[in-house]
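Most newcomers find our protein records easier to grasp once they have seen one. A learned vocabulary of local backbone shapes supplies the integers on the structure line. An example says more than a description, so a record of this kind follows:
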Amino acid sequence: MKQNIYDYSFEMSRQRKHNITVALILSISVFIFLNIVVTFFIFPVLVRSDSMSDEITSGSVVFVTPLSRSPKRGDVVLVKRLDGRKLSAGEKFLNLGFRFFTAQTFAPFGHSDRATGKESIRRILALPGDTIYMKDYVLYVKPAGESQFLSEFEVSESKYSILSFSIPAEWDCIGSNPQMEETTLGENEYFVLADNRVEAVDSRSYGPVKGELIGGKVILEYFPLNKFKLF
């Protein structure tokens, strides 16, 4: 019968166990470290729709940092799910594992097909205290303390374009409404819009977003490589 050297060499057997233990500890440490990084510092997000096209198209991957605590007009941000669904500690832990091994593209718990039941990438265009209205898909903003309205492109600190179209006279405005009456944002309220104003769901439908539901700022688009850019 063929003998394994580890069967009769105590020293080599002990060394093998030591190496396995070290490799296991190292693997667990790397897993914990990377999950701390992607939870508290920077993490990738797979964009699954064209709601931010042409800036960010479906299938793109962006990096988001939750460290940015002072949103500015024009910032592209991650909006958390708005339906109030909370995950248990076990579900959160399992989601962390699945996201780690799938490059943040899959998590088994918490998924919903409803617009308010999933995370989304949107652009912040109005801050607490701002007064706003919309005409022909363009938002007009009177910043808190100011006396006149300016277009979103004038008050934004970022340059971007929007996707819209001329409105037929017979259109009943069902869906993403191109018009909106004047309203003033309350404390801790942010107005977010998609760059694709025709097809996307945003604050026109679900209203202003509370600050705690902003999960972080998009700082980098790194895939596809030909669209690599900083925000």
About this structure: The first helix runs from residue 5 to 8. Helices lie at 5-8, 10-40, 89-101, 152-155, 203-206. The radius of gyration is 24 Å.
